[in-house]
Amino acid sequence: MFRSLTTSALALTAMTAPAFADVTPEQVWQSWVDYYQSVGYTVAEGGRDMAGSTMTVRDVLITSESDSGSMEFKVPQVVLSDQGDGRVQTVFADELAVAVSGTDPDGGEYSVPVAVKIPGNSMLSSGAPEDMVHDFNYPTMDVAVKTMTTDGTESPLPINFALTNSTGKVHIVSGAPSKYDYQMKTEAFTFDGDVPDDVGGKVKFAGSIDGFESQGDMTAPGGDFTNMEEEMDAALKAGLAMKGQLKSGVINANFDYSGTDEQGQPTSGKGDYKGEGFDATFQMSQEGLGYKLDSDAFDFTLTTPQVPFPISYGIKGGSLDMMLPVSQRDEAQPFRFAYSLDGVTMAEDIWKMFDPQAALPRDPASLSLDLSGLMKVTKDMFAMPDDTGDMAPADDTDSATAEGIAPDAPADDAEAQAEAEAGADEPTGFEPLQMTINKFALDLLGAKVNATGELKSAEGGNIEAPIGQIHAEYEGVNTLIDTLSSIGLIPQEQMMGVRMMLAMFAKPVEGSTDKMATDLEFKEGGAIFANGQQIR
User: Fold this and answer.
1) Hey, what's the torsion of the CAs at 407, 410, 416, 418, to 10 degrees?
2) Distance (Å, rounded) from C-alpha 411 to C-alpha 382?
3) What does the DSSP 8-state code read for residue 105?
4) So which residues are the signal peptide here (predicted)?
5) Phi then psi for 32, rounded to 5 degrees?
6) Quick one: pLDDT at residue 402?
7) Helices 477-486 and 492-505 sit at what angle, rounded to 10 degrees?
């Protein structure tokens, strides 16, 4: 289902965003058809007619099929008008119908009808056939889901999305390779829903985002990639590269849940989220797959009758920066992973649950982790199973059951099950060879921890038995342990063990009363030393 919904979302974006165009209506339409066919869609039209310089295409049907499901667009009408100045205006029908269907991971068949309304839409295309600019304007875009049918049973699924005043520009340079870049601004984005769960409960939600800005570019390789989703690995090797950015303004969202818990007792809850926005970027090419997210401050509050006070917390900011190689190579490739949370706070009522006397500092907490290194990629991330042979069928597994092997099943079933169990432990295709801890910093409950280090795998080994060193420094840990003991979170009878464990790994820093340090050394053969003393 996820793959079908993803395909549907991408196709919907392409439908409602500027399509390929040229200087005449016929060339605009044909370029649009060529584009969809190039990415694996089938385009059929019920008819077309010309009236002066205007071409109208009627009853357009765009379909896509994949292993996990299908997607179908029905467009009643597309009107393409020559403006007489080298530009072509394209206007889609105000309402489009989308149908998504397929099979979920549990084998159930589903279908979801989607209604799309884009009144007042307009697109102006200009330039040369091989180098064109498309300016678009969508005053409103409403996407509505009302029902979902699973195994023949229809259930309500009211979900609505709306975009207001979306404008932007797309620039397309055709050829081999072709190049595509775009920018778009949306004044506001709203959403709401009333979704039932599997046990008779309901989740009502609503929210708004004050402004979206997005931009991106893509280099598409030459060649016949009729289904980009299933041929991603080949496309990347042929030169496919893309990147994009999405920024948002203020975000407000809420939800209201009512239903029953696992014991059948009534339960309910309300949540509110308020955020100042985010900035997310994405990139993918044969060199790697990368995500970067910077989040501004946000607050979340949850109220439920099961808890006598609101559960709330806030974060001043956070970030994620990740880059992974995707293509198999003999040589090691770089990777990185960085994550941070800044200014994490909790409501006083939560603190009082375990610290009613306010013995612990309420200072905002923070966490920062920055890792980089080298890894070997032993198989392509986006290779389809058939490309590697990993999904070769067994001789006869028709008699296997979800619970195990049928008593009357042929012997090949045992082989199939053994292969399936072996596949569960199959390597991921990533083998880290060297890792640098550029930064690890934790500030919590008045204590601070900072660490750096570098580890590498032994010759012919893996990073699970590393060679290298880690240096860590601590401040305020002794004071924190004393405080935790005084409020009963560390029982007095365990204090001696805690102190002994701390002394084993940490040594006092000369000239300081509450600073300690640890030097961990990992040697070949698995030996580990802490401050010069072997601990393994």
Assistant:
1) 60
2) 33
3) T
4) 1-21
5) -65, -45
6) 39
7) 170
CB atoms within 10 A of CB 400: 19
3-state secondary structure at position 393: coil
CA 460 to chain CA centroid, nearest Å: 34
State the residue for tokens 């998504």: 100
Q: Which of 208-217, 255-264, 325-334 has the lowest mean pLDDT?
A: 255-264
- The whole-model pTM stands at 0.78
Quote the tokens at residue 360: 């612990």
Joined tokens for residue 168: 């932007």
Q: Where are the beta strands (DSSP E) in 221-315?
A: 241-248, 251-260, 266-275, 278-285, 288-295, 298-303, 311-315
**Which of 168, 171, 181, 180 lies closest to 141, judged by CA?**
168
**What stretch of H or E contains 91?**
strand 88-92
Is residue 46 within 8 A of residue 86, CB to CB? The reply is: no
Is the model's pLDDT at 455 over the cut of 90? yes
Q: Is there a contact between 498 and 505 (Cβ–Cβ < 8 Å)?
A: no
Q: Where are the domains of the chain?
A: 271-390+431-444, 446-534
The answer to whether 394 touches 416, Cβ cutoff 8 Å, is yes
Q: In Å, what is the CA distance from 403 to each residue of 267, 410, 417? A: 33, 16, 11
Sign of CA dihedral 464, 467, 473, 479: positive
CA torsion 87-93-95-97 (nearest 10°) is -100
